[in-house]
Design a protein that fits this description.
The chain folds into 2 domains: 94 residues, Zn peptidases (Aminopeptidase, 3-Layer(aba) Sandwich), CATH 3.40.630.10; 112 residues, 2-Layer Sandwich (Alpha-Beta Plaits). Helices cover 33% and strands 23% of the residues. The chain contains 6 helices and 9 strands; from the N terminus they run αβββαββαββαβαβα. A 4-stranded antiparallel sheet has the order 4-5-3-6, with helices on one face. A 3-stranded mixed sheet has the order 7-2-8. The protein is elongated.
């Protein structure tokens, strides 16, 4: 039995990736795993993948009183984002069993230096969530095509594939019998995909807490849910390891 406490879980998953790259031997005897994300003790067997983009638009600076002498990078980004909004409507028609639809979110935009200067630089960051029925390459190419149309340069941060595991896995059956809870799909990405695909561990996500309070000020887990989680995982260890 092994416990893994990883750093950088909210961003690049550097802790998990370091473990797999440098200490994979630590996991060599592990056949089953549970990632303790807040699922209210429901069992996540499918989740969306992610691909994050940073798109950079370049222009030409000029005095704000003579915009005709410049090339406005922010306006290039605006035209790009108008078509991203159209693409978003198409993407949201794509679904998958146990999951809500695929999504696009424009999470950050920055550009310009001051109000009386034509901006020569603008950056847009996009979060694209992929359902298992989609191909990662197609999801990426849709955004790359629009970026090229408006002269943007793409910097891809990282990509994590979607995953779906069978409800007939032993770990799923064990947890379902103990928790009496439902199987479901998660919108957010967790490391259960990495441990499954890169290490070969039979893995799911299940834990106390409510994903509805994630990424908010003062995240919390109720005491009652924490106590239920203690009972669930105590019983799981007894059945699984003893």
């Amino acid at each position: 039995m092994a416990f893994v406490f990883d750093g950088d879980e909210e961003a690049g998953l550097a802790g998990t990736r370091w473990l797999i790259k440098n200490r994979k031997d630590f996991l060599k005897d592990i056949s089953k795993g549970v990632v303790l994300e807040p699922t209210e003790l429901n069992i996540r067997i499918v989740q969306k993948g992610t691909t994050f983009f940073k798109v950079i638009f370049k222009g030409k600076a000029a005095h704000g009183s003579r915009p005709d002498l410049g090339d406005n990078a922010i306006m290039k980004a605006v035209r790009f984002l108008q078509e991203i909004d159209d693409l978003k409507k198409e993407v949201e028609k794509r679904g998958s069993p146990l999951l809500r639809n695929a999504t696009i979110n424009v999470g950050k935009i920055s550009g310009g230096t001051k109000v009386n200067v034509v901006p020569d630089h603008c950056e847009v960051e996009i979060d694209r969530r992929i359902v298992p029925s989609e191909k990662i390459e197609n999801a990426q190419n849709e955004i790359i095509k629009l970026s090229n149309k408006f002269g943007g340069d793409i910097l891809k941060n990282y990509t994590n594939p979607p995953i779906e595991v069978s409800e007939n896995l032993e770990i799923v059956k064990l947890l379902k019998d103990i928790t009496k809870s439902k199987l479901y799909g998660g919108d957010a990405y967790t490391e259960f995909e990495i441990f499954t695909n890169e290490v070969g561990i039979e893995c799911v996500t299940c834990g106390p807490g409510d994903m509805g309070v994630a990424h908010k000020v003062d995240e919390f887990v109720s005491v009652d849910n924490l106590k239920k989680g203690k009972k669930v995982f105590t019983e799981l260890v007894k059945r699984w390891c003893l």
